[in-house]
Design brief:
Strand content: 25-35%
Bound molecules: flavin-adenine dinucleotide
Shape: elongated
Largest sheet: 7 strands, mixed
Order of helices and strands: EHEHEEEEEEHEHEHEEEEEEEH
Low-confidence stretches: none
Mean pLDDT: 96
Radius of gyration: 21 Å
Length: 309
């Protein structure tokens, strides 16, 4: 049997990949989405989304993504399980490889998103799952009436710190700058909570404990003074790195993001990137979705053009 050639292979089933799938189905293209975990992407880790248009009330991240997945599947788009390990373009065809399967397509869209950045301090690896977490929505309930520490100062850190106040008796936010980067509405929520204490100009030096996390050693970088905060859990939200291990290195900028133009086109004709993995992304669901639509429409145009040659 000859190998099947898809019009477009989409890598990743987060908001960018699923939206590309929706637009591809409606354009009548033969497409497939490859996803290494479950469809939904990072959003499933967010307990509440209130900035995605169309929902008058906040919606749980997993609920929003279940709807996006259902919409994609209803339109007939296959979502296959597999981790893409490498890809290349040979004679106008993309070869996309997973551990046990090879896909061929005329165009391809990389929508592999981003993953949590590590603090890279002693104890982080050792206590992962034993007090160290990157997801308050997933693990917050384990910290009922306990003391927790959140590291970071962006939207996600503030959102997740506020979420933890539902369970924890106390939430410290440790932030290396003297003010937060997160949006005003989230800052107001955090400032208004009597369970939250903020330590600005501070960094975590070490996560300590025996079986599980017992304390964190922090340093005030303005004064050089060190102190120890006893805690049961440390939640780390210090940014995200693009997921790019399978991407040809010449496509990446110095931050590891895939360079694209306004059509989401990379330097390789027919290869597009969408969402958090691409350069200058604002890392928002609505923007990832818009990128996915843009990439798919541009891929469609590209396929039509090569067919006319
Ligand atoms: P992702 O959502 O990261 O999806 C990428 C998908 O690709 C994943 O499912 C991944 O498993 C898959 N994948 C990766 N590598 C491979 C591979 N090699 N092979 C196959 N599949 C692969 N944004 C908002 O707009 N509002 C919010 O309130 C908000 N809150 C957030 C809260 C949290 C806790 C987090 C973590 C993020 C939040 N965001 C929010 C940001 C938002 O989630 C991201 O901007 C968005 O998910 C990016 O979508 P994406 O499709 O580009 O990537």
């Amino acid at each position: 049997m000859e190998d099947k050639i898809y019009d477009v292979v989409i890598i990743g089933a987060g908001p960018a990949g699923l939206t590309a799938g929706i637009y591809g189905a409606r354009a009548g293209l033969d497409i497939v989405i490859i996803e290494k975990f479950a469809p939904g992407g990072q959003v499933v880790n967010s307990y509440e989304i209130e900035n995605y248009p169309g929902f008058t009330e906040p919606i749980a991240g997993w609920d929003l993504m279940a709807k996006m997945e259902e919409q994609t599947r209803r339109l007939g788009v296959p979502i296959e399980s597999g981790e893409v390990t490498s890809m290349e373009k040979i004679n106008d065809l993309f070869h996309v490889n997973t551990i046990d399967k090879k896909y061929f397509s005329r165009a391809a869209i990389i929508a592999s998103g981003a993953q949590n950045r590590k603090l890279k301090v002693a104890g982080e690896e050792e206590f992962l799952g034993r007090g160290v977490s990157y997801c308050a929505t997933c693990d917050g309930a384990f910290y009922k009436d306990k003391v927790t520490v959140v590291v970071g100062g962006g939207d996600v850190a503030l959102e997740e710190a506020f979420f933890l106040t539902k369970f924890a008796s106390k939430v410290y936010i440790i932030h290396r700058r003297d003010k937060f980067r997160g949006t005003d509405i989230l800052q107001k929520r955090v400032f208004g909570s009597d369970k939250i204490s903020i330590l600005y100009n501070s960094v975590v030096k070490e996560i300590c404990g025996k079986e599980k996390v017992a304390s964190v050693r922090i340093e005030n970088i303005a004064t050089g003074q060190e102190s120890v905060i006893p805690t049961d859990g440390l939640f780390i939200f210090v940014g995200y790195d693009p997921v790019n291990s399978f991407v040809p290195p010449q496509l990446l900028n110095k931050n590891g993001e895939i360079k694209v133009n306004m059509d989401m086109q990379t330097e390789i004709p027919g290869l597009f990137a969408a969402g958090d993995v691409r350069s200058n992304s604002r890392r928002q669901i609505v923007m990832a979705a818009a990128d996915g639509a843009t990439a798919l429409l541009a891929a469609h145009e590209y396929i039509n053009n090569i067919a006319c040659k």
